[in-house]
Amino acid sequence: MEVLAPAGSKDSLKAALLGGADAVYLSGKMFGARRFAPNFSESEIKAAIRAAHDHGVKVYVTVNTLIKQSELSRAFSYIDTLSSLEPDAVIVQDRGLMRMINENFSLPIHTSTQMGIHSADDAQWARDAGAERVILARELHLKEVERIARDGCIGTEVFIHGALCYCFSGQCLFSSMLGGRSGNRGMCAQPCRKRYSLSRETSFMLSTADLFCIDSIPELIRIGVKSIKIEGRLRSPTYVYLTSKIYKAAVERAIRGEEELITPRERELLEVAFNRGFTPGYFSGDQVMQRQYADSRGLFIGTAHSYGKEVWLPTTSLREGDGITFYRGDHKIGGFEIHSPEIQNAGISVRSPFRLELGEYIAYKTRDRDFSKIEEEISQIVIPTCHVKSSNRTFRIPTVKRSLREPTLSAHISSISSLRSSLPFIDRVYFDMNGHEETAQQICEEADKEFVLSMPRITPEIPEVDANSIMVHSPGQARKYADRILYGSYFLNTFNSLTIPNLDMTQLSVELSRNDLAELTKYSNKALEVLVFGRVEMMITRDPTLDEGELKDERGKRFPVVRDKYGWAHILNSADLFLMDFMDEMDQHGIDSYALDLRGKSPELSALVAESFRNRDLSKKTRIKRRCGAITAGHYLRGVR
After folding, report:
1. Which of 228, 278, 345, 554 could form a disulfide with 212 if both were Cys (CB 3.0 to 4.6 A apart)?
2. Nearest alpha-carbon partner for 420 in 406, 431, 407
3. Half-sphere exposure of 104 toward its Cβ, with a 13 Å CA cutoff?
4. Could you give the count of Cα atoms lying within 13 Å of 584 in the half-sphere of its Cβ?
5. Angle at Cα 137 formed by Cα 436 and Cα 554, nearest 5°?
6. What gap in Å lies between CA 102 and CA 104, rounded to an integer?
7. Burial of 609 by CB count in 10 Å (0-12 exposed, 13-18 middle, 19+ buried)?
C-alpha cells in the first residue's frame, strides 16, 4: 500500500522525502486545487521529480480544476510541458482535460476526488475514459469502498488523514456563489469554517473534524486499496513529515499483523502538529463534526490558572521546549515556549514571558519539543535546481456554426401539486425519485409532456429504474443507463466543449458567465440547457446531524436546508437564480432548452414562474422577486476566478 503525502512547497517536499512517503502530490502555478499554497514553477517541478525519483518516490502533479473554454489552449501547453518532465501521473478533475490528455499525451491519469467518483459504475467509466486510478470521494463507507475496489476494475486511492470537506467532493458551490471564489477552481474561501445558526443552535455548524483513519488501514489493505492519501498542501512541513512517517509505520505494522498501529507518542505528535478534532470519517460511521471551533488548536491540556506571570497547568507531561497556547472562548489570548517547568499540585507551574490577566484559560499544546530538530533535519535536504523551457505548442478545436434553436422549457419538480399547476407551461419535467414518480409520469403522459426521471444525487449503489428518459448526475449513472434517453444535470460540472458528455442534452455549469457560455457554444453542436430559475444547490452532505430548516450566516443570509429520503442534506442558495432578462441573448448562442427549478415552491408560485418564463414576461419579475424573497443573476454576469 502506497503512502501518498502532500507537497505544497519545496520544504514540504523535503519533509515527505525525509518522512518516508512512497509518493507525493504537488501542483504547478496554474490549474491546481490549492492555489493559495506556494506550489511549484515548471522548473521546480522538474527539480522535485528528479529529487523524488532519486529517493525512490513517485510524483503526481495535480491539474485538478475545472477548465474554461478560453483556457484550453493554455492548459494544453502546460500539459505538454509536464509531459516532458515525466511525472508518474497527473491528477485531473475536468473530464474535458482528461480527454485532451488521452488523445495527445501518454501521461498516466488519476481522477481527482473532485471528480466525485463514488460508485463501481463511476470507476468503470473512469477506466474506460483512460484513467489508471480513481481517488474516491471521502464520503464513502468502507463497504462502498470495497465494492468499488472489487468491481471497478481500476486502482483505488482514499484520503486517510487531514481536512474533510463538509460538502460532497467536487459539488460545493458555497464559496463560489457567496464571493466568486470557486472551490472547483482552487479558490475556496472555506465558508464551512464560519459560524451559522440553525433552529436554536449557533456554532461552527458546517465545520468537520480532521480525518484520522489509522484504524481503517488493515481493512483498506484487505480490500485492495492501492494508496492512502494525506491531505495538507497548505500545512506545515513538520505536519507533512510526521504524517508521512507515522502512516508509513502504521502500514508496515498492519502488514506484519501487529495490533498497535500507532503509539501514544505518535498520536500526541499528530494532535500537536494540526488538530481541529479527529474523526475516523465515514469509513466506520458518520460522526464527523466538531462544531466548537474551526481552527487548529493542537493537543487539549485543560483549564489553566493564571496568577500574573505564573501559570499552573493541569498536566505533568509537558517538557522543556514544548509550546502552549491559551484561549478564552473563541479568543486566542497568546502562548509561549515552556522553560523550567516545576511540578506543583498534580500539575506544573511555568513562568509566562508576559503578564496574563488573572483567572482561568483553556490551554492547548501547540508545539512539541522535537519540532525544532525535525525542522533542522528538513532544512538539510537539498533539492537541485533545474531549468525548463515552457512549451508553446498550440491546441485548436474547430469552431462550429451553431444554428438558432426553438428552445424548450424544462422544470425540476418534486411535488404532484406543483407539477399539475406548472405543466401547462412547460415541455419537459425532471421529477425526483421520491415515491411519487409513477403518478407524475402518468400525469405527464396524459398531458403529452415529456417525463424524465431524475436519479438520486449521490448513488454509491445506483438503483435499478425502468424509465425511458433519465436525468443523470454522475458519469457512472450515465454509463449504467447508456441505452436510455439521457439528460445531464449541472452537477456534472460541464465547463468546456470537451467536457460535454455524449448525452441527449446536458445542462451547463451554473458557474459559467455569459462570456464563458458564448465561448463554449462556438465549439459544440451538442444539445445544451441552461438553468434560468431556482435555488442553486450550494452543498450536498452526508452529515446526518444537520436538521432541516434555514441556515443563517453572520450577515443574516438564510440558506434552506432540505433532507432527502436517501440520507443526504441539501443546502440551497439564499436567493433564486433569475435569468429571464438574458434568455434572448442566450438564444443567439443556440441554447436548446432552459430549465426552471421549482422544487420546494408552492403550486401557485410554480405556475407563476412557469407561465412568466414561457412568455418571457419580464413585467412579472418584481412579483416573482417579492414571492421568492430575493433573486440573483448568479455567475452569469460576474463569473468565477
Report:
1. 278
2. 431
3. 21
4. 5
5. 80
6. 6
7. buried
pLDDT digits (tens, 9 = 90+) for 510-523: 999 999 999 999 99
**Residue 348: CB atoms within 10 Å:** 20
Rounded to whole angstroms, how far apart are CA atoms 79 and 91? 11
| Rounded Cα–Cα distance for residues 82 and 46 (Å) | 9
Give how far Cα 276 sits from Cα of 204, 279, 322, 327, 328, Å.
12, 10, 19, 14, 16
What the block records as the C-alpha cell of 403 is 444554428
- The rounded distance, in Å, linking the Cα atoms of 446 and 551 is 39
- The residue that leads in pLDDT, 242 or 187, is 242
Alpha-carbon distance of 371 to 350, in angstroms, equals 20
The C-alpha cell at 128 is 474506460
Going from the C-alpha of 639 to that of each of 191, 366, 488, 636, the distances in angstroms are 19, 40, 21, 6
φ/ψ bin of 105: left (φ > 0), alpha (ψ from -120 to 50), beta (otherwise): beta
264/214 Cα distance (integer angstroms): 13
Q: Are the CB atoms for 412 and 577 separated by under 8 Å?
A: no
Report d(CA 340, CA 70) in Å as an integer.
61
Distance CA 362, CA 394 (A): 58
CA angle 307, 313, 317 (to 5 degrees): 155
Give the DSSP letter of residue 519. Answer: H
Contact 412, 599 (CB under 8 A): yes
Of 22, 87, 40, 86, the residue nearest 61 (C-alpha) = 87
Residue that has been written with the C-alpha cell 438564510 in this structure = 558
Helix, strand or coil, per DSSP, at residue 571: strand
Beta strand pairing call for 210-212 and 278-279: parallel
Q: Which amino acid is at 165?
A: C
pTM of the complete model beyond 0.85: yes
Q: The C-alpha cell of 352 is what?
A: 509566562
